[in-house]
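Weekly modeling sync, notes
Attendees: AB, CL, MP (scribe)

Item 1: holo prediction request
CL wants a bound-state model with fe (ii) ion before deciding which constructs to order. AB pointed out that an apo prediction alone won't tell us much about the pocket. Agreed to run with the ligand included and paste results into these notes for async review.

Input as submitted:
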Amino acid sequence: MIDLHCHFLPGIDDGPDSEAGSLDLARAWLNAGVERIVATPHVNLRHPNRARSIAEAQQKMLLALERENLGLKVETGAEVSAGVAIDMPDDELGQLTLGDSDWLLIEPPTSSTPFALHGSIFGIRGRGWNILLAHPERNPAIQEDMDLLVSLVDGGIKTQVTAGSFSGRYGKTAARTVRQMMDKGLVHTVASDAHHAVLRPPEMSAPLTEAGYGAMADWLCQEMPAWILDGGPEPRAPENTKSPKKGLLGRFRNRG
Ligand SMILES: [Fe+2]
């Protein structure tokens, strides 16, 4: 699997605060079947990282991974807040894309009017950038009005949902919203948004499968992330089938 959104590099945002913490995360990814990640530190007002600070932190971690013999492939990107990205010159934004692609991982504003949300996202898109929208299922404006997201997707935006949203890690509203998004075909990738090996772990396909969407896991956790990073023809979505819960009702149905 390929994780397109995580906080892996130590000491530069609210992810791990030490190299040891980052190495714990690396081991957790490998145990979960993730072989390639894009480290996406925050680029926002609170964590004003830039390409240089991210590259320096990555170089140190690449050496640490090699020393520990951990075969995790790490590329860099950033989780850029929409409010920062809209004012950032294109040459700076171009150094914050996911891997070598022209895709930006953009964090929607948490408190904004629907108008401001659309204005900022389409403002960046209008400058020619491909946008992967970070965890829209956790955004209050989108939770309130799914049509907002429909129009963003109609305008060419792709979405990344956080695996833990399926299991309720981010609350009931996010869990309900992510299911609505799945029903409407509005989910294009799943990522961990991991910050810590235990407290916010690098989970990927497990919560998805647990929620009954196992048939979509390869497409969401492997094929679409690979397409975003490496290009080529866009992989076709499998039929959006949700397996019935193995509850009492499911058992009765199976008997019929
Ligand atoms: Fe994040």
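Recorded for review: Residues 244-256 have pLDDT under 50 and may be disordered.
Action items: CL to compare against the apo run; MP to circulate these notes.
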